[in-house]
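User: Please predict the structure of the protein below. I'd like the answer in structure-token form so I can feed it into my own downstream comparison script.

Assistant: Understood. Taking the following sequence of 410 residues as input:
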Amino acid sequence: MSNPNLLPPSPSVVRRRTSTRRRAGSNLPPLQDGHYASLHAIRSFLKGRICYDAFPISFRLIILDTKLSVKRALQCLLMNSVVSAPLWNSEKSEFAGMLTVLDIIHLIQYYWRTASYDFAAEDVETLRLEKLREIEIELGVAQPPLLRKHPSSTLYEAAQVLVQTHARRLPLLDYDSETGHEVIVSTLTQYRLLKFIAINCHREIQQLNLPLRRLRIGTYVATPSSNDLPEGQNPYHPIATATLNTTVFNVVHMFSERSISAVPIINEDGIVVNLYETVDVITLVRSGSYQSLDLKISEALKQRSADFPGVVICTASDSLGTLLQLIKKRRVHRLVVVEGEEEERKGGRKGRLMGIITLSDVLRYIMGDLSHERQAQTQTQAATSGTSSESAPSPSIPSAAASPSAPSQP
């Protein structure tokens, strides 16, 4: 016989009292309310997943020894169709940073400034990867930070590092339990992280319907019209641009000075006709022919790799959700924002350069303002390092379930 004390209460006996309290409504319009609520949901999702979860089922990892020559390292990157690789110091048995295409761009600029073609062709045969940082110091360019995270770190923590350091990729390191040495497990790129969000947060992405124009994701032309501009001023400032008659080296200089990876190619009316990337430069010089840098962009594009995916464009009327759906379907690293029908009705020109959006811009927007979290982390570290609990303020860590109208919103 069943014990009556363990049975659920009868609905006729237990009645829930009707509440007379009303839930406070949001001050935001429904579309905007759903947009910010979805951003909160995505951030909560990232806090509940670790870097291991974003790994593909099968992948290969290319690791380069710092004693390897730059020329062989470049060949390795090209043969494996990758644009970066972790570096390993075999003498110290430790992680030594990342080799990226931008490092090669800096090297090209260094040779162009300081050496002849013949010396550059001879020196690159023996120059080792470990010397690249010294060259960057001579050029006065920013040194890449030595970043790392454990694969068991949450994706939210990894995204924080990518946003705060402006890095495009994050090495994931573990430790050998027997030797105690570092072990390079993988790298987490902005693209893989955003694609992971796009695949797993389908419902939330559908709510991200606000236009890019309103969200101001990316970098946009400061002066919408080129009329009445002072002579010599770039009408598309602060975006670096080039034409088909620009030489490759002039674009290489833009890459190195601005630490960017692509430059829109426009015609005399500002219409975007192509995009020149750092990878295109590497394709030119892989044979050691540095004279190719004298070529005009129009000629250099003829030597572009056949697998170039094309220029991905969007308009300011497109939504963030549409952009993430695109990342889900194809490999995208940046989008060129051009004037569309709406701008054309206002006197603009359809297809004219309006802005550029990188994956860094997208991830930064999704993560929101992290300054309050950095302050909370600093306070927590101060409290745990010996600061008395009476004098140290308690850290204020925002909840992932905060209201969409909270001040931490983008």
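That's the full token string. Residues 30-47 form the longest helix (18 residues).
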